[in-house]
Amino acid sequence: MRLSAGMLCMLLPLHIWLSGMVITPKAVFDAKFERDIAASGRLLRFTSLEFKSLAADSRLLSAIFYVGKMLEDRAIIKGQDWDWFTATVNASAELDPYFYDTYYFSALTLAWSANRPEEAVKLLEKGVSYKPDSHRLLFNLGFIYYYFLKDNAKASEYIAMAAKIKGAPPFYANLAARLAYDSGRHETAAAFLLDMLTNTENERIRAMYEKRLIALKGAIELEKAAKEYEARYSDRPADIAELKTKGFIDSLPDDPYGGEYYINEEGRVYSSSGFIEKRQ
Fold first, then answer.
1. CA pair distance 10, 259, nearest whole angstrom
2. What is the pLDDT of residue 182?
3. What angle do the packed helices 171-182 and 135-147 form, to 10 degrees?
4. pLDDT at residue 69 in the model
5. Which of 124, 116, 101, 189 has its CA nearest to residue 148?
6. What is the 3-state secondary structure (H, E, C) of the chain?
7. What are phi and psi of 262, to 5 degrees?
């Protein structure tokens, strides 16, 4: 789109006013003013013309410099500082929604340093919508759900998506299955591993998946028997062994990781091994 000279004369001063302070060293001006000029990304997108990527870089650098300097000085970073940081990195994402660094670095800063995992999730979800083939963004999204929000089911969902992307590390799949198991979604974990097995040729990785699948199938079998027991007796079995004693299973499955299956207070079946390899 070609703009008239008059339009350029109007937009250029506006853009300079909105973003000119971004690259000024922090010591030159009052930090409060720097924080207060977190301009709207949409407005900057309009005024930055064909230099949107450069403007996005400058907003991200401004945010990193501002917070990084405060962390370096061990200054107290207040809520309003993090409000400014959040608004600024969101403006960067608005200016250039395909800029990977904005999502990767900003989301981790929001989660770890600002203790704002919900804001980090929003930013990463936007990043994934524009860069759906980035297994790292999906993995980080899953990690934040797991570590900060304590939502294993959501964590498993995103890490499973990451595992299916070409170039993703093999451990993603195992971790996704484990998180699904921890959240009580044994069938989901097993189905996911079966899908990964059909698309994996590496024998070492296949063996790792197959071992976990055997363990999950044992948990699924026992949980199904426990539900049948409860349906018949209107009560839960005292332990796994009672399922065999009462004829609900022919034999107790072995946990290939060396643990013992058990029924928790919610009636779900898990293993004392956690499906984790024992250290030698």
1. 71
2. 75
3. 30
4. 76
5. 116
6. CCCCHHHHHHHHHHHHHHHHHHHCCHHHCCHHHHHHCCCCHHHHHHHCCCCHHHHHHHHHHHHHHHHHHHHHCCCCCCHHHHHHHHHHHHHHHHHCCCCHHHHHHHHHHHHHCCCCHHHHHHHHHHHHHHCCCCHHHHHHHHHHHHHCCCCHHHHHHHHHHHHCCCCCCCHHHHHHHHHHHHCCCHHHHHHHHHHHHHCCCCHHHHHHHHHHHHHHHHHHHHHHHHHHHHHHHCCCCCCHHHHHHCCCCCCCCCCCCCCCEEECCCCCEEECCCCCCCCC
7. -150, 160
- pTM for the model: 0.61
Cα(6)–Cα(194) distance, integer angstroms: 63
| Residue recorded with tokens 């107290």 | 76
CB distance 192 to 205 below 8 Å:
no
Residue 115, both tokens: 């203790």
- Amino acid of residue 279: R
**CA–CA dist 85, 183 (Å, integer):** 34
- Which pLDDT score, from 0 to 100, does residue 55 have? 64
Q: How far lies 109's CA from each of 6, 28, 39, 45, in Å?
A: 41, 25, 20, 24
Long-range Cβ contact pairs of 229-236 (< 8 A, separation 24 or more): 230/267, 236/263, 236/267
